[in-house]
Amino acid sequence: MDIVKARTMPGVMELLPGDQIAYNRVRDTIRATFERFGFLPIETPVMELVSVLLTKSGGETEKQVYFTQSTGARAQGKDPDLALRFDLTVPLARYVAEHEPDLAFPFRRYQMQRVYRGERAQKGRYREFEQCDIDVIGRNDLDLRFDAEIPAVIDQLFTQLDFGPFTIHMNHRKILRGLFAALGIEAGERQTTVLREVDKLDKRGRDAVLATLSEDEYGLGGPLADKLLTILNTRGPGAEVLATLRGLDVSHALLDEGIAEMAVVVEALKALGVPADHWCLNLSIARGLDYYTGTVYETLLDDHPELGSICSGGRYENLAGHYTKSKLPGVGISIGLTRLFSKMQELEIVSSSDSTVQCLVARMDPELDHETIALGAELRAAGINTQVVFDGGKLGKQMKAADKAGIPFVAILGPDELTRGSVQVKNLRSGEQQDIPRAEVGARLLAQLGETS
RNA sequence: GAGGGUGUAGCUCAGUCGGUUAGAGCGCCAGGUUGUGGCCCUGGAGGCCGGGGGUUCGAUCCCCCUCACUCUCCCCA
Questions:
Q1: Looking at the DSSP assignment, which residues form a beta bridge with residue A109?
Q2: Nearest nt (C1') to A123 (CA)?
Protein backbone atom coordinates (compact mmCIF):
# COMPACT_ATOMS: atom_id res chain seq x y z
CA MET A 1 0.00 0.00 0.00
CA ASP A 2 1.28 3.42 -0.86
CA ILE A 3 1.98 5.67 2.08
CA VAL A 4 1.15 9.32 1.56
CA LYS A 5 3.58 11.59 3.29
CA ALA A 6 1.74 13.34 6.12
CA ARG A 7 2.39 17.02 5.74
CA THR A 8 0.76 20.42 5.80
CA MET A 9 0.85 22.93 2.99
CA PRO A 10 3.47 25.66 3.33
CA GLY A 11 2.43 28.84 5.05
CA VAL A 12 0.31 27.43 7.84
CA MET A 13 1.15 27.31 11.51
CA GLU A 14 0.40 24.09 13.32
CA LEU A 15 1.56 23.71 16.90
CA LEU A 16 2.29 20.96 19.36
CA PRO A 17 0.16 21.11 22.52
CA GLY A 18 2.83 22.85 24.60
CA ASP A 19 3.12 25.65 22.06
CA GLN A 20 -0.62 25.76 21.50
CA ILE A 21 -1.08 26.38 25.22
CA ALA A 22 1.34 29.29 25.03
CA TYR A 23 -0.46 30.59 21.94
CA ASN A 24 -3.83 30.38 23.67
CA ARG A 25 -2.47 32.29 26.66
CA VAL A 26 -1.40 35.16 24.40
CA ARG A 27 -4.77 35.04 22.67
CA ASP A 28 -6.62 35.09 25.99
CA THR A 29 -4.65 38.13 27.10
CA ILE A 30 -5.56 39.93 23.91
CA ARG A 31 -9.23 39.09 24.26
CA ALA A 32 -9.36 40.09 27.91
CA THR A 33 -7.77 43.45 27.10
CA PHE A 34 -10.18 44.10 24.24
CA GLU A 35 -13.11 43.35 26.53
CA ARG A 36 -11.68 45.55 29.27
CA PHE A 37 -12.01 48.46 26.88
CA GLY A 38 -15.60 47.63 26.14
CA PHE A 39 -15.26 45.97 22.76
CA LEU A 40 -17.89 43.40 21.81
CA PRO A 41 -17.15 40.04 20.18
CA ILE A 42 -18.33 39.06 16.72
CA GLU A 43 -17.43 36.27 14.34
CA THR A 44 -18.12 36.06 10.65
CA PRO A 45 -18.02 33.06 8.25
CA VAL A 46 -14.69 32.03 6.76
CA MET A 47 -16.31 32.22 3.35
CA GLU A 48 -18.02 35.20 1.82
CA LEU A 49 -19.87 35.56 -1.46
CA VAL A 50 -17.44 36.56 -4.17
CA SER A 51 -19.76 39.39 -5.17
CA VAL A 52 -19.48 40.79 -1.65
CA LEU A 53 -15.82 40.13 -1.02
CA LEU A 54 -14.45 41.42 -4.30
CA THR A 55 -16.35 44.65 -4.62
CA LYS A 56 -13.53 46.49 -6.20
CA SER A 57 -10.76 44.64 -7.93
CA GLY A 58 -7.27 46.01 -8.06
CA GLY A 59 -6.22 45.78 -4.44
CA GLU A 60 -3.09 43.76 -3.88
CA THR A 61 -4.67 41.49 -1.28
CA GLU A 62 -7.67 40.85 -3.49
CA LYS A 63 -5.38 39.23 -6.02
CA GLN A 64 -4.53 36.64 -3.41
CA VAL A 65 -7.98 35.26 -2.59
CA TYR A 66 -8.70 31.57 -2.36
CA PHE A 67 -11.87 30.73 -4.23
CA THR A 68 -14.02 27.86 -3.00
CA GLN A 69 -16.97 25.97 -4.35
CA SER A 70 -18.99 22.83 -3.75
CA THR A 71 -18.11 19.65 -5.61
CA GLY A 72 -21.46 19.87 -7.38
CA ALA A 73 -20.81 23.33 -8.73
CA ARG A 74 -17.30 22.31 -9.67
CA ALA A 75 -18.53 19.30 -11.62
CA GLN A 76 -20.81 21.60 -13.59
CA GLY A 77 -17.83 23.75 -14.46
CA LYS A 78 -19.24 26.84 -12.81
CA ASP A 79 -17.12 29.71 -11.61
CA PRO A 80 -16.74 29.80 -7.84
CA ASP A 81 -19.18 32.13 -6.15
CA LEU A 82 -17.53 31.82 -2.73
CA ALA A 83 -14.11 32.85 -1.47
CA LEU A 84 -12.16 32.78 1.79
CA ARG A 85 -11.82 36.12 3.55
CA PHE A 86 -8.38 37.73 3.24
CA ASP A 87 -8.82 40.14 6.14
CA LEU A 88 -11.41 41.02 8.77
CA THR A 89 -12.12 44.55 7.63
CA VAL A 90 -14.11 43.70 4.52
CA PRO A 91 -16.30 41.21 6.42
CA LEU A 92 -16.79 43.87 9.09
CA ALA A 93 -17.97 46.33 6.49
CA ARG A 94 -20.46 43.79 5.18
CA TYR A 95 -21.53 42.92 8.72
CA VAL A 96 -22.14 46.50 9.74
CA ALA A 97 -24.02 47.29 6.55
CA GLU A 98 -26.15 44.18 6.91
CA HIS A 99 -26.97 44.62 10.59
CA GLU A 100 -26.92 48.38 10.83
CA PRO A 101 -30.48 48.65 12.23
CA ASP A 102 -29.63 46.24 15.04
CA LEU A 103 -26.33 47.73 16.10
CA ALA A 104 -25.66 50.42 18.66
CA PHE A 105 -23.34 53.15 17.40
CA PRO A 106 -20.56 53.87 17.88
CA PHE A 107 -20.19 50.16 17.30
CA ARG A 108 -17.15 48.75 19.03
CA ARG A 109 -16.28 45.22 18.02
CA TYR A 110 -13.37 42.87 18.35
CA GLN A 111 -12.85 39.87 16.15
CA MET A 112 -10.18 37.18 16.38
CA GLN A 113 -10.30 34.79 13.46
CA ARG A 114 -8.16 33.28 10.77
CA VAL A 115 -7.84 34.77 7.32
CA TYR A 116 -6.40 33.40 4.06
CA ARG A 117 -4.06 34.73 1.43
CA GLY A 118 -2.77 32.80 -1.53
CA GLU A 119 0.76 34.07 -1.68
CA ARG A 120 4.17 32.51 -1.51
CA ALA A 121 4.87 31.74 2.11
CA GLN A 122 8.05 33.07 3.63
CA LYS A 123 9.39 34.08 6.97
CA GLY A 124 6.58 35.63 9.02
CA ARG A 125 4.19 35.42 6.08
CA TYR A 126 1.45 32.90 6.18
CA ARG A 127 -1.33 31.70 3.92
CA GLU A 128 -3.53 31.01 6.90
CA PHE A 129 -3.11 33.30 9.87
CA GLU A 130 -5.09 34.74 12.73
CA GLN A 131 -5.84 38.40 13.02
CA CYS A 132 -7.07 40.15 16.15
CA ASP A 133 -8.93 43.29 15.14
CA ILE A 134 -10.64 46.05 17.04
CA ASP A 135 -12.61 48.76 15.31
CA VAL A 136 -14.94 51.52 16.36
CA ILE A 137 -17.53 52.41 13.75
CA GLY A 138 -19.55 55.60 13.94
CA ARG A 139 -22.66 56.62 12.07
CA ASN A 140 -22.03 59.82 10.08
CA ASP A 141 -19.43 61.00 12.61
CA LEU A 142 -16.88 59.47 14.91
CA ASP A 143 -15.26 61.45 17.70
CA LEU A 144 -11.50 61.93 17.35
CA ARG A 145 -10.95 60.73 20.89
CA PHE A 146 -11.55 57.19 19.66
CA ASP A 147 -8.33 57.58 17.68
CA ALA A 148 -6.55 57.89 21.02
CA GLU A 149 -8.36 54.97 22.60
CA ILE A 150 -6.97 52.55 20.04
CA PRO A 151 -3.31 53.09 21.00
CA ALA A 152 -4.37 53.01 24.66
CA VAL A 153 -5.62 49.46 24.11
CA ILE A 154 -2.40 48.52 22.38
CA ASP A 155 -0.39 50.06 25.21
CA GLN A 156 -2.21 48.02 27.84
CA LEU A 157 -1.96 44.91 25.78
CA PHE A 158 1.76 44.96 25.06
CA THR A 159 2.49 45.99 28.61
CA GLN A 160 0.68 42.87 29.79
CA LEU A 161 2.16 40.59 27.17
CA ASP A 162 5.57 41.73 28.40
CA PHE A 163 7.41 41.21 25.13
CA GLY A 164 9.83 44.03 25.99
CA PRO A 165 9.75 47.78 25.42
CA PHE A 166 7.62 48.93 22.50
CA THR A 167 6.67 52.16 20.77
CA ILE A 168 3.44 53.00 19.01
CA HIS A 169 4.32 55.19 16.05
CA MET A 170 1.55 57.50 14.93
CA ASN A 171 1.03 59.78 11.99
CA HIS A 172 -1.85 61.42 10.18
CA ARG A 173 -2.74 61.00 6.53
CA LYS A 174 -4.01 64.56 6.27
CA ILE A 175 -0.66 65.86 7.47
CA LEU A 176 1.11 63.81 4.82
CA ARG A 177 -1.30 64.72 2.02
CA GLY A 178 -1.25 68.34 3.12
CA LEU A 179 2.53 68.39 2.98
CA PHE A 180 2.51 66.76 -0.44
CA ALA A 181 0.01 69.28 -1.75
CA ALA A 182 1.95 72.18 -0.25
CA LEU A 183 5.07 70.94 -2.02
CA GLY A 184 3.24 70.62 -5.31
CA ILE A 185 2.77 66.86 -5.41
CA GLU A 186 -0.76 66.66 -6.70
CA ALA A 187 -3.43 64.43 -5.18
CA GLY A 188 -4.36 61.03 -6.53
CA GLU A 189 -2.16 58.37 -8.02
CA ARG A 190 1.02 60.39 -7.62
CA GLN A 191 0.57 60.97 -3.91
CA THR A 192 -0.21 57.30 -3.37
CA THR A 193 2.96 56.27 -5.17
CA VAL A 194 5.08 58.70 -3.19
CA LEU A 195 3.35 57.62 0.02
CA ARG A 196 4.34 54.06 -0.64
CA GLU A 197 7.98 55.05 -1.10
CA VAL A 198 8.00 57.24 1.98
CA ASP A 199 6.75 54.31 4.01
CA LYS A 200 10.02 52.54 3.30
CA LEU A 201 12.15 55.26 4.90
CA ASP A 202 12.90 53.22 8.01
CA LYS A 203 13.52 50.06 6.10
CA ARG A 204 15.58 51.21 3.12
CA GLY A 205 17.12 54.32 4.56
CA ARG A 206 16.95 57.94 3.55
CA ASP A 207 19.46 57.79 0.70
CA ALA A 208 17.78 54.90 -1.08
CA VAL A 209 14.36 56.51 -0.89
CA LEU A 210 15.78 59.85 -1.98
CA ALA A 211 17.33 58.19 -5.01
CA THR A 212 14.05 56.48 -5.93
CA LEU A 213 11.99 59.64 -5.53
CA SER A 214 14.40 61.59 -7.69
CA GLU A 215 13.86 59.21 -10.61
CA ASP A 216 11.83 60.42 -13.55
CA GLU A 217 8.70 58.43 -12.87
CA TYR A 218 8.23 60.17 -9.54
CA GLY A 219 8.93 63.56 -11.02
CA LEU A 220 10.42 65.01 -7.88
CA GLY A 221 13.55 67.02 -8.37
CA GLY A 222 16.43 66.27 -6.03
CA PRO A 223 15.95 69.40 -3.87
CA LEU A 224 12.20 68.84 -3.56
CA ALA A 225 12.57 65.21 -2.55
CA ASP A 226 15.30 66.25 -0.17
CA LYS A 227 13.10 68.82 1.49
CA LEU A 228 10.22 66.38 1.76
CA LEU A 229 12.36 63.72 3.36
CA THR A 230 13.88 66.19 5.79
CA ILE A 231 10.42 67.09 7.05
CA LEU A 232 9.23 63.48 7.10
CA ASN A 233 12.24 62.40 9.08
CA THR A 234 10.75 64.19 12.09
CA ARG A 235 9.76 62.02 14.99
CA GLY A 236 9.37 62.48 18.70
CA PRO A 237 6.93 63.32 21.47
CA GLY A 238 3.55 64.52 20.22
CA ALA A 239 3.80 68.13 21.36
CA GLU A 240 7.28 68.59 19.91
CA VAL A 241 6.42 67.24 16.48
CA LEU A 242 3.24 69.30 16.33
CA ALA A 243 5.28 72.41 17.18
CA THR A 244 7.75 71.57 14.43
CA LEU A 245 4.92 71.17 11.95
CA ARG A 246 3.38 74.47 12.91
CA GLY A 247 6.72 76.20 12.42
CA LEU A 248 7.25 74.93 8.86
CA ASP A 249 7.55 77.40 5.99
CA VAL A 250 4.97 75.47 4.00
CA SER A 251 1.25 75.66 4.49
CA HIS A 252 -1.90 74.10 3.20
CA ALA A 253 -5.46 73.87 4.49
CA LEU A 254 -5.31 70.06 4.65
CA LEU A 255 -2.06 70.21 6.59
CA ASP A 256 -3.60 72.55 9.16
CA GLU A 257 -6.60 70.28 9.47
CA GLY A 258 -4.38 67.28 10.07
CA ILE A 259 -2.35 69.12 12.71
CA ALA A 260 -5.51 70.21 14.51
CA GLU A 261 -6.92 66.68 14.52
CA MET A 262 -3.65 65.19 15.67
CA ALA A 263 -3.54 67.69 18.51
CA VAL A 264 -6.91 66.46 19.78
CA VAL A 265 -5.66 62.87 19.71
CA VAL A 266 -2.45 63.81 21.51
CA GLU A 267 -4.43 65.51 24.29
CA ALA A 268 -6.70 62.49 24.70
CA LEU A 269 -3.69 60.17 24.88
CA LYS A 270 -2.44 62.16 27.86
CA ALA A 271 -5.81 61.92 29.59
CA LEU A 272 -5.88 58.17 28.96
CA GLY A 273 -2.58 57.90 30.79
CA VAL A 274 -0.62 56.29 27.99
CA PRO A 275 3.03 56.68 29.06
CA ALA A 276 4.93 59.18 26.91
CA ASP A 277 7.72 56.70 26.19
CA HIS A 278 5.29 54.19 24.69
CA TRP A 279 4.30 56.31 21.72
CA CYS A 280 5.54 59.01 19.39
CA LEU A 281 4.61 60.92 16.28
CA ASN A 282 6.60 59.68 13.32
CA LEU A 283 5.96 61.54 10.07
CA SER A 284 7.42 58.77 7.94
CA ILE A 285 4.77 56.26 8.92
CA ALA A 286 2.42 56.06 5.95
CA ARG A 287 0.92 52.54 5.77
CA GLY A 288 0.56 51.10 2.33
CA LEU A 289 -3.22 50.74 2.31
CA ASP A 290 -4.78 53.71 0.64
CA TYR A 291 -8.15 53.54 2.41
CA TYR A 292 -6.75 55.21 5.50
CA THR A 293 -7.68 58.87 5.69
CA GLY A 294 -6.66 60.07 9.15
CA THR A 295 -4.60 58.76 12.03
CA VAL A 296 -2.37 55.78 11.24
CA TYR A 297 -0.55 53.48 13.63
CA GLU A 298 2.34 51.08 13.65
CA THR A 299 3.75 49.34 16.69
CA LEU A 300 7.39 48.32 16.95
CA LEU A 301 9.32 46.43 19.57
CA ASP A 302 12.24 48.69 20.56
CA ASP A 303 14.64 45.79 20.89
CA HIS A 304 13.59 44.18 17.62
CA PRO A 305 12.89 46.86 15.03
CA GLU A 306 13.78 44.36 12.31
CA LEU A 307 10.49 42.57 12.95
CA GLY A 308 8.63 45.50 11.48
CA SER A 309 5.19 46.49 12.64
CA ILE A 310 3.50 43.89 14.79
CA CYS A 311 0.22 45.71 14.96
CA SER A 312 -1.06 48.47 12.74
CA GLY A 313 -4.13 50.30 11.58
CA GLY A 314 -5.74 53.67 11.27
CA ARG A 315 -8.81 55.74 10.56
CA TYR A 316 -10.92 55.50 7.44
CA GLU A 317 -13.65 57.90 6.41
CA ASN A 318 -16.15 55.43 5.09
CA LEU A 319 -16.08 51.77 5.92
CA ALA A 320 -18.94 50.31 3.96
CA GLY A 321 -19.41 52.50 0.94
CA HIS A 322 -19.74 49.43 -1.26
CA TYR A 323 -22.64 48.03 0.72
CA THR A 324 -24.71 50.95 1.99
CA LYS A 325 -25.41 54.60 1.45
CA SER A 326 -24.90 55.25 5.16
CA LYS A 327 -21.69 57.03 5.96
CA LEU A 328 -19.80 54.89 8.44
CA PRO A 329 -16.42 56.28 9.51
CA GLY A 330 -14.21 54.09 11.65
CA VAL A 331 -10.88 53.63 13.31
CA GLY A 332 -9.24 50.34 14.12
CA ILE A 333 -6.16 48.25 14.39
CA SER A 334 -5.13 44.73 13.59
CA ILE A 335 -2.70 42.41 15.32
CA GLY A 336 -1.23 39.61 13.27
CA LEU A 337 -1.32 37.03 16.04
CA THR A 338 0.20 34.21 14.02
CA ARG A 339 3.13 36.34 12.94
CA LEU A 340 3.54 37.89 16.37
CA PHE A 341 3.55 34.51 18.05
CA SER A 342 5.99 32.95 15.61
CA LYS A 343 8.41 35.80 16.17
CA MET A 344 8.06 35.62 19.92
CA GLN A 345 8.83 31.93 19.67
CA GLU A 346 11.87 32.63 17.54
CA LEU A 347 13.12 35.11 20.12
CA GLU A 348 12.28 32.63 22.87
CA ILE A 349 10.12 35.21 24.61
CA VAL A 350 7.20 32.81 25.00
CA SER A 351 7.67 29.56 26.87
CA SER A 352 5.86 26.35 26.16
CA SER A 353 6.71 24.65 29.43
CA ASP A 354 3.33 24.71 31.13
CA SER A 355 0.68 22.11 30.52
CA THR A 356 -3.03 22.61 30.96
CA VAL A 357 -2.88 19.41 33.02
CA GLN A 358 -2.20 20.40 36.62
CA CYS A 359 -1.93 17.03 38.27
CA LEU A 360 -1.04 13.54 37.11
CA VAL A 361 -2.34 10.65 39.20
CA ALA A 362 0.37 8.01 38.93
CA ARG A 363 -0.24 4.32 38.74
CA MET A 364 1.56 2.30 41.39
CA ASP A 365 -0.23 -0.97 41.25
CA PRO A 366 -2.80 -2.22 38.72
CA GLU A 367 -4.71 -3.69 41.64
CA LEU A 368 -5.43 -0.16 42.83
CA ASP A 369 -6.71 1.28 39.55
CA HIS A 370 -10.13 1.63 41.12
CA GLU A 371 -8.67 3.91 43.81
CA THR A 372 -6.55 6.08 41.48
CA ILE A 373 -9.47 6.59 39.15
CA ALA A 374 -11.57 7.67 42.13
CA LEU A 375 -8.79 10.01 43.29
CA GLY A 376 -8.72 11.56 39.84
CA ALA A 377 -12.45 12.21 40.04
CA GLU A 378 -12.03 13.78 43.50
CA LEU A 379 -9.32 16.13 42.22
CA ARG A 380 -11.44 17.17 39.25
CA ALA A 381 -14.36 17.81 41.57
CA ALA A 382 -12.04 20.15 43.49
CA GLY A 383 -11.39 22.05 40.27
CA ILE A 384 -8.00 20.63 39.32
CA ASN A 385 -7.19 19.61 35.74
CA THR A 386 -6.32 15.99 36.27
CA GLN A 387 -5.03 13.12 34.20
CA VAL A 388 -4.95 9.56 35.50
CA VAL A 389 -2.32 7.09 34.30
CA PHE A 390 -3.58 3.75 33.05
CA ASP A 391 -0.48 2.38 31.39
CA GLY A 392 2.58 4.45 32.14
CA GLY A 393 5.20 1.85 32.97
CA LYS A 394 7.41 2.29 35.97
CA LEU A 395 6.87 5.18 38.36
CA GLY A 396 10.12 6.83 37.27
CA LYS A 397 8.96 6.76 33.70
CA GLN A 398 5.65 8.33 34.68
CA MET A 399 7.48 11.10 36.53
CA LYS A 400 9.70 11.73 33.57
CA ALA A 401 6.76 11.92 31.21
CA ALA A 402 4.92 14.32 33.54
CA ASP A 403 7.97 16.54 33.84
CA LYS A 404 8.54 16.62 30.13
CA ALA A 405 4.92 17.47 29.49
CA GLY A 406 5.13 20.37 31.95
CA ILE A 407 2.66 18.94 34.45
CA PRO A 408 3.49 20.55 37.82
CA PHE A 409 2.17 17.95 40.28
CA VAL A 410 2.09 14.17 40.56
CA ALA A 411 -0.24 12.41 43.01
CA ILE A 412 0.83 9.00 44.22
CA LEU A 413 -1.58 6.55 45.76
CA GLY A 414 -0.05 3.11 46.42
CA PRO A 415 -0.70 0.36 48.96
CA ASP A 416 1.12 2.27 51.74
CA GLU A 417 -0.87 5.46 51.20
CA LEU A 418 -4.09 3.51 51.01
CA THR A 419 -3.46 1.98 54.44
CA ARG A 420 -2.65 5.43 55.88
CA GLY A 421 -5.60 7.04 54.15
CA SER A 422 -3.31 9.58 52.52
CA VAL A 423 -1.85 10.60 49.17
CA GLN A 424 1.71 11.60 48.31
CA VAL A 425 1.77 14.82 46.32
CA LYS A 426 5.00 15.70 44.59
CA ASN A 427 5.77 19.15 43.24
CA LEU A 428 7.93 18.54 40.18
CA ARG A 429 9.20 22.11 40.10
CA SER A 430 10.54 22.19 43.64
CA GLY A 431 10.97 18.48 44.15
CA GLU A 432 9.07 18.66 47.44
CA GLN A 433 6.82 15.79 48.35
CA GLN A 434 4.08 15.83 50.98
CA ASP A 435 1.94 13.17 52.56
CA ILE A 436 -1.57 14.63 52.66
CA PRO A 437 -4.73 13.09 54.15
CA ARG A 438 -6.82 12.02 51.21
CA ALA A 439 -9.83 14.09 52.23
CA GLU A 440 -7.74 17.27 52.05
CA VAL A 441 -5.79 16.62 48.86
CA GLY A 442 -8.05 18.60 46.55
CA ALA A 443 -8.13 21.74 48.68
CA ARG A 444 -4.41 21.66 49.55
CA LEU A 445 -3.35 21.11 45.95
CA LEU A 446 -5.64 23.85 44.75
CA ALA A 447 -4.04 26.23 47.24
CA GLN A 448 -0.55 25.30 46.06
CA LEU A 449 -1.52 25.79 42.44
CA GLY A 450 -2.72 29.25 43.35
CA GLU A 451 0.69 30.09 44.80
CA THR A 452 2.75 28.85 41.87
CA SER A 453 0.76 30.42 39.06
C1' G B 1 5.19 38.28 -10.67
C1' A B 2 11.20 38.69 -10.44
C1' G B 3 15.73 36.81 -8.45
C1' G B 4 18.88 33.71 -5.06
C1' G B 5 19.76 29.30 -1.80
C1' U B 6 19.14 24.30 -0.01
C1' G B 7 17.68 18.89 -0.34
C1' U B 8 22.08 13.06 3.83
C1' A B 9 18.54 9.64 10.59
C1' G B 10 12.53 12.31 13.98
C1' C B 11 15.56 17.41 14.50
C1' U B 12 20.32 20.34 13.61
C1' C B 13 24.15 19.27 10.48
C1' A B 14 29.15 16.68 9.13
C1' G B 15 31.23 13.75 5.18
C1' U B 16 33.27 11.37 0.69
C1' C B 17 39.51 15.65 -4.27
C1' G B 18 34.04 9.64 -7.25
C1' G B 19 35.78 3.58 -4.17
C1' U B 20 33.49 -1.46 -1.04
C1' U B 21 29.87 -1.93 6.14
C1' A B 22 27.41 6.71 5.33
C1' G B 23 28.79 9.63 10.66
C1' A B 24 28.09 13.16 15.12
C1' G B 25 25.10 15.85 18.60
C1' C B 26 20.20 16.20 20.27
C1' G B 27 15.72 13.37 20.57
C1' C B 28 13.50 8.38 20.99
C1' C B 29 13.47 3.15 23.24
C1' A B 30 15.62 -0.28 26.92
C1' G B 31 18.75 -1.20 31.07
C1' G B 32 21.91 0.49 35.40
C1' U B 33 17.89 2.21 40.04
C1' U B 34 12.10 -4.39 42.31
C1' G B 35 7.57 2.75 44.69
C1' U B 36 10.10 8.67 42.65
C1' G B 37 11.61 13.07 37.10
C1' G B 38 15.93 16.52 35.89
C1' C B 39 22.43 14.56 36.13
C1' C B 40 25.53 10.42 34.73
C1' C B 41 26.83 5.55 32.41
C1' U B 42 25.79 1.32 28.96
C1' G B 43 23.23 -0.66 24.93
C1' G B 44 19.55 -0.29 20.88
C1' A B 45 16.25 1.14 16.98
C1' G B 46 16.16 4.51 13.00
C1' G B 47 18.90 6.52 6.18
C1' C B 48 16.64 3.48 -1.77
C1' C B 49 22.21 10.46 0.92
C1' G B 50 14.51 14.23 -2.60
C1' G B 51 13.07 11.71 -7.62
C1' G B 52 14.51 10.49 -12.82
C1' G B 53 18.23 10.25 -16.50
C1' G B 54 23.49 10.76 -18.04
C1' U B 55 29.08 10.22 -17.60
C1' U B 56 32.02 6.15 -15.31
C1' C B 57 34.60 -0.27 -13.97
C1' G B 58 32.05 2.26 -9.87
C1' A B 59 27.84 8.17 -8.24
C1' U B 60 25.34 10.38 -1.84
C1' C B 61 29.56 13.22 -4.41
C1' C B 62 30.30 15.32 -11.33
C1' C B 63 26.49 16.88 -15.46
C1' C B 64 21.27 17.56 -17.12
C1' C B 65 16.12 17.50 -15.99
C1' U B 66 12.39 17.43 -12.36
C1' C B 67 10.03 17.91 -7.69
C1' A B 68 10.04 19.89 -2.90
C1' C B 69 11.41 23.28 0.60
C1' U B 70 13.40 28.04 1.80
C1' C B 71 14.99 33.35 1.56
C1' U B 72 14.88 38.30 -0.68
C1' C B 73 12.15 41.94 -3.62
C1' C B 74 6.92 43.35 -4.46
C1' C B 75 2.83 43.72 -0.96
C1' C B 76 1.37 43.09 3.73
C1' A B 77 -0.23 40.96 9.40
A1: A40, A135
A2: B71
